[in-house]
Design a protein that fits this description.
The complex is a heterodimer of chains A (about 240) and B (about 325). Chain A has 7 helices and 10 strands. Chain A is of the alpha/beta class and about 240 residues long. In chain A, the strands form 2 sheets. Chain A has a 6-stranded mixed sheet with strand order 6-7-8-3-9-10, sandwiched between helices. Chain A has a 4-stranded antiparallel sheet with strand order 2-1-4-5, covered by helices on one side. The chains are: A alpha/beta (about 240), B alpha+beta (about 325).
């Protein structure tokens, strides 16, 4: 799903954000990315969703070499990636429903289909009753869940999260992580950047540690690999399916 | 049902969604304008005035042309005959000219009639009575038939009459009409230049307004780009905003012009009556109104197109 081959990134100001990073994350895998701020976590995520381009090396996402993606084709790449941000990045002048509907409207879905999918996604994150609210009326945890609903509504095969629990208390953080696990159990690949070490310790997933632009540690927890655990869903079935159909 | 709708949506479903999306964004553009009514009204007013100047000038020129054309048809040639010509000879000459196919009508003004008329009109009747002899020449007023009343044809006719032995002087009354015509042509060029300059101004006004609104929505554009929006998707609501600016400005401009014309109507009618004319200022007809709106909408759309394309490219999510 994600492949980094000898990837380096130097910003115009001369800062080396990534140095010769090699990495492979399989389809259906859930992995954490950690390290001090400035270690290169964010740069890594930015390279994957083409917010930045690698200075050298190759980034291959879903079989697509991003070096060869022209500017005009960037939106198509981003539609296959669900992105979750620490600051949620919601549109505050629109309702929760409209925020979540945004990726579907961009993709040109039919009106009724949009309604069905948005409600399924909101139901999944437990915010169905707030669809008509604006994000400003919601708590931080709820806003983050709206962001997650928006990221998954289009059923992308890959989810990226940049410090998704950065502003949340441990209880809410655990709740968000459980949501991520549910998506992972149906085959969605996830890469989550976080420096919340206590949270990572509880999670038993593959953890990539960055330091000064290098990947210094790659711990794979053998016990909890990519086996689907939940028997209720088969991997081919997305949690947003079979609701409101 | 929508359930069958997957990535490979049918063309008609996509089209339906596109139409819906356009409706939605047209409304959003409208809402943007009404959310900030005062400053947007100012913008619309500025555009409307910039449009009203060349459009108003064009209306005046059209009216001027109408005026000159209506006189064009009435181009007359005055033939001043030799002073000592007898009345009977004058009549013979008039009959001869009447037989010319290019002539529609010939009016004879005999010296005695002319003197009497002049006396009555000028109020110098007493002074004229003192005169020994009549200084006025007999005059024939020749009205060319319509197909010979163009400036070139009347000129040819004039040259023909000048060669007649009894004619002292032939004069084309069209002269001043042609001067007016030339003046109008000059003014038309000037109006076109002014129109082009002001159209450019409208483009810049709309472009600048849209630039500000793009900047105000920078964050929103970043978010929408992050979830995979194409430039076309982002551009659309701004294009609609530009279109609405153009439409509202066009309507306001139309209203400004109509009010100005109503305001001008009475003095023009007064002036026309002094010249024994039925001339009335004609405003914008249906077609011209449509033209005005088309131009203003296009300028709004074009202005936002130029602006938004450049500015949304510079906004990349961070």
């Amino acid at each position: 799903m994600i492949q980094f081959a000898q990837v380096s990134k130097r910003y115009p100001n001369g800062q080396d954000a990534l140095r010769q990073v090699n990495l492979e994350i399989a389809s259906g895998e859930m992995a954490f990315l950690t390290g001090h701020s400035g270690a290169g976590k964010s740069t890594m995520l930015k390279l994957i969703c083409l917010m930045e381009r690698a200075t050298s090396g190759q980034v291959i996402i879903n079989g697509k070499n991003l070096n060869k993606v022209k500017r005009r084709k960037i939106p198509a790449v981003r539609r296959d990636i669900g992105m979750i941000f620490q600051d949620h990045r919601l549109l505050f002048d629109r309702t929760v429903f409209d925020n979540v509907a945004l990726p579907l409207m961009i993709a040109g879905y039919e009106h009724r289909e949009i309604g069905r999918r948005v409600r399924a996604a909101l139901d999944k994150v437990g915010l169905l009753s707030k669809e008509k609210n604006t994000p400003i009326m919601l708590s931080g945890g709820e806003q983050q869940r709206v962001g997650i609903a928006r990221a998954v509504v289009n059923k992308p095969p890959l989810l990226l999260a940049d410090e998704p629990t950065g502003n949340l208390d441990p209880e809410l953080s655990a709740e968000i992580m459980r949501l991520f696990e549910q998506f992972n159990q149906v085959g969605v690949s996830l890469l989550i950047a976080s420096h919340d070490l206590s949270l990572l310790a509880q999670m038993h997933y593959r953890t990539l540690v960055m330091k000064e632009g290098r990947l210094v540690q790659d711990q794979t927890d053998e016990a909890l690999n990519i086996e689907p655990v939940d028997s209720e869903h088969s991997p081919s079935e997305h949690p947003l399916d079979d609701q409101y159909e | 049902m929508g359930a069958s709708m997957t990535q490979g949506a049918s063309f008609s479903a996509r089209l339906k969604m596109l139409v819906r999306l356009h409706k939605l964004e047209a409304n959003r553009g409208l809402k943007d304008i009404f959310d900030n009514p005062f400053s947007n009204f100012m913008t619309v007013l500025v555009i409307a005035i910039a449009l009203a100047l060349p459009a108003g000038l064009q209306i005046l020129l059209d009216n001027g042309k109408n005026l000159s054309q209506s006189w064009d048809g009435a181009s007359r040639i005055s033939l001043y005959l030799k002073v000592n010509l007898k009345d009977s000879q004058t009549q013979i000459l008039a009959d001869k000219i009447r037989r010319n196919l290019a002539v529609e009508r010939v009016d004879v003004i005999l010296p005695s009639m002319a003197l009497k008329d002049f006396g009555e009109r000028s109020g110098f009747a007493d002074a004229i009575a003192e005169l020994d002899s009549n200084p006025l020449p007999p005059t024939l007023v020749v009205q060319p038939s319509p197909e010979y009343s163009s400036p070139a044809a009347s000129e040819k006719l004039l040259a023909e009459f000048e060669l007649l032995a009894d004619v002292d002087k032939a004069q084309l009354d069209l002269d001043w009409v042609r001067k007016l015509y030339a003046l109008i042509q000059l003014a038309e060029k000037a109006a076109a230049a002014l129109g082009a300059a002001l159209a450019l101004a409208v483009l810049l006004i709309v472009g600048n307004t849209i630039r500000l609104s793009v900047q105000n929505r920078r964050e929103e554009i970043e978010v929408v780009k992050l979830v995979g929006a194409t430039d076309a998707f982002i551009r659309r609501p701004f294009l609609y905003t530009g279109f609405w600016y153009g439409l509202f400005a066009g309507i306001l401009c139309w209203i400004i012009l109509e009010i100005s014309l109503v305001w001008l109507e009475e003095p023009v009618a007064n002036l026309a009556s002094l010249y024994q004319s039925q001339f009335m200022v004609s405003g914008l007809n249906l077609f011209q109104s449509f033209q005005l709106l088309t131009v203003s909408c296009s300028l709004g759309l074009l202005g936002s197109w130029f602006s938004v394309g450049r500015h949304i490219r510079n906004i990349e999510p961070r």
